[in-house]
Design goal:
An eight-stranded mixed sheet has the order 1-2-4-3-5-6-7-8, with helices on both faces. The chain is α/β, with parallel strands linked by helices. It is globular, with a radius of gyration of 16 Å. β5, α3 and β6 form a beta-alpha-beta unit. The chain contains five helices and eight strands, in the order βββαβαβαββαβα. The chain starts with 7 loop residues before the first strand and ends with a helix. It has a single domain, classed as Rossmann fold.
């Protein structure tokens, strides 16, 4: 496993409706992939600084991959306004384009909660993305928000789903039904005692990512 790079670069990416605030954790010169990690729902406080997003970045960066995090439109210093998940798919595509243009490496997508629901819609059909990770996939209705994951049924690239067995937005039976309907390769990792935010179980969430990556890439 590569030595973890230390440098962090703050930048803005030209997005569909204005600049997107981003942070890039540098990779090694021998990096084989570059990765993108997307944050949870911005209306409920989600940003690129979210703890789950940070730890997912750490897990991927540990392999020497450069890892990009960004704020969706209307979040932090990113321009535009929240678009209930539709325009945010274009934000993810923009971030994937930036990573491809910057590094010319195969890509990995990871997203947490809203970031997974939105980002998988962009990452799964993108041939540049070689593996996808959904953390805390919100398979149950949240207030007035529901997410449709039927598009995953045609996603044949490696898929990792990590959730807690106490996830209030991803009940285990619902999640197991979704994952069971998907083509291989796929893996579902359930973290005992973890809630939606992996409170007190972030290390176990990172371990699940770090254990999976060498088997699929």
């Amino acid at each position: 496993m590569a030595t973890q790079p230390a440098s962090i670069r703050s930048l803005f990416i030209e997005g569909p409706v204005g600049k997107l605030e981003a942070l890039l954790n540098a990779g090694t010169e021998q990096a084989t992939h570059a990765a993108l990690v997307c944050h949870p729902h911005p209306i409920y406080g989600g940003t690129l600084h979210n703890k789950v997003v940070f730890h997912a970045m750490k897990a991927l960066n540990r392999f020497g991959y450069p890892v990009l995090r960004f704020n969706f439109r209307g979040t932090g210093l990113s321009q535009g306004t929240h678009d209930r998940g539709d325009g945010e798919v274009d934000d993810v595509r923009t971030a994937l384009d930036w990573l491809d243009g910057e590094f010319h490496l195969p890509l990995i997508f990871a997203g947490f909660s809203f970031g997974a629901a939105v980002g998988l819609r962009a990452g799964c059909p993108d041939a540049r993305v070689k593996a996808v990770i959904g953390l805390g996939l919100p398979v149950a209705a949240i207030d007035d928000r529901t997410y449709d994951f039927e598009f995953l049924e045609t996603c044949e690239k490696p898929k990792l789903f990590v959730s807690g067995d106490r996830d209030q937005f991803g009940p285990r039976p619902n999640l197991e039904r979704v994952v069971a309907s998907l083509p291989e390769p796929k893996k579902l990792a359930i973290i005992p005692g973890a809630d939606h935010f992996f409170e007190g179980r972030l290390r176990e969430m990172r371990d699940a990512i770090e254990a999976w990556i060498p088997h699929v890439l």
